[in-house]
Amino acid sequence: MVSSCTSRHTENFLIRLMTQPAVLVQVDATRGSVPREAGAWMAVFADALVGTIGGGHLEYQAIANARAQLQQISPQGGQATLRFALGPALGQCCGGVVHLRLEPVSAGDVPALALRLAGGRTPVALFGGGHVGQALAQVLAPLPFSLTWIDSRDGVFPAVGPGVACEHSEPVQAAVAGLAPQSRVLIMSFSHAEDLDVVAACLKRQRARADLPFVGLIGSQTKWAAFSHRLEAQGFSPDELAHITCPIGVPGIAGKAPEVIAVAVAAQLLQTL
C-alpha cells in the first residue's frame, strides 16, 4: 500500500514500478549553483520518465546513463554514483557540481521507496472544504507538503488524490490538538464562527507548545480587526495575535478567484520552508 504522504509523481512512479523496473536517479550532493537541490529525483523507465533533476544537459546525460544501467539490471546490480561539473563537463552556465546516485529498483522495493520518498514533506492542515480549499488541495498536491484537510461537515470533500488525508471533526477546532508538530495551518471554513474557534485553538496550542510556525486566516483586514478584538477579550496578547497571518497569500496578487488565491497561498507556504 502506497503511503498517504506520497506526492502525485511518487504515486505514479510506484504504480508503474509494480510492473516495470526502473533506475532511480537522485541528487546525492551539490556544490555551487545547480539546477536542483539534494534529494531531488527522477525515475527512468525503458519507455518513460517520472520526475526531474532539473532538465538540460545534466538530465540528458543522467537519462542516458540510467537507461544503459537499466539494460544491465541483474540480481547483483547495484548503485552507481556519477559526478558532473556542470560548466567544464556539460557546458551549463550554472557552474556548480552535482553528484547523482543511480539505483536500480523494481516491484520489491516499493514499500521502502514509499517511505523514503515521502520523507521530508512538511505537514499542512487546511480547515475548510469550500471552493478555495478545493483549489488549494489541487495546487498543494505536487508540492513538498503532506496535507490534512479538515471540515466539520461530513461528506463535504471531493475525491482526492495521494498526499491528502481528509478528516471530519465536530467541533472543528478539536482537530487542532492532534495536528503534526510544525504544521502550517490554513483556516477558511464556511463559518466565521468556526474560523474564530480554530484561530483560538491554534493560539492556545502555540502558547503551550510553540510548534505551529505559520497560521494563516483567509479574509480581509476588516475581518481580522473584528477577530482581534474578540481574541483580545479571550485573553490573547497583541504579541500572540501577531502570529496570525491575515489576509493570506503573497502580496501583490489582487485576484479573488479560488485558483488565484490558491497559488498565492501556496507560494506563501513555500516561503516558510
Q: The CATH topology of the largest domain, please? A: Rossmann fold
The sequence of SSEs as H and E is HEEEHEHEHEHEEEHEHHEH
Given as residue ranges, the uncertain stretches (5+ residues, pLDDT < 50) are 1-5
Architecture (CATH level 2) name of the largest domain: 3-Layer(aba) Sandwich
Per the principal axes of the C-alpha atoms, what is the gross shape? elongated
Counted up, domains total: 2
**CATH homology-level superfamily of the largest domain:** NAD(P)-binding Rossmann-like Domain
What is the terminal separation in angstroms? 28 Å
Layout of strands and helices, then pairs:
Elements: H1 8-17, E1 22-31, E2 41-44, E3 49-51, H2 56-70, E4 80-85, H3 86-90, E5 97-105, H4 110-118, E6 122-127, H5 131-140, E7 145-151, E8 164-168, E9 184-187, H6 192-209, E10 214-217, H7 221-233, H8 238-241, E11 244-245, H9 258-271
Parallel strand pairs: 6-7, 6-9, 7-8, 9-10, 10-11
Antiparallel strand pairs: 1-2, 1-5, 2-3, 4-5
